[in-house]
Amino acid sequence: MGRIGILGAGLAGLAAATKLAEAGEHVTVFEARDRPGGRVWSETLDTPTGCYVIERGAEFVLDGYTSMRRLLSQFGLRLVDTGMSYYVREPGDVPDITCDDIIRTGREALQLASSSGLQGTAEALLADLPDEPELVDALRARIEISTAVSASEVTAKSLHHIASFEPKPSWRVAGGNQQLPDAMAGALGDAVRYGETVKAVENISDGGVLVTTDGGTSVFDSVVVALPLAVVRHPQVTLPTNEARNSALKYVLQGHAAKLHLPLETQPTTSAVMSVEGRYWTWTATDESGGVVPVLNAFMGSSSAITRANLRQHPEEWVAKARALRSDLTIPEDASALTTIWSQDPLAGGAYAAHAPGVTAAGTALLEKPVGDVFWAGEYSEPEFVGLMEGAIRSGERAAGRVIQRLQARSRNSDSERTKA
Ligand code: FAD
Question: What is the pTM of this model?
Answer without folding.
Answer: 0.96
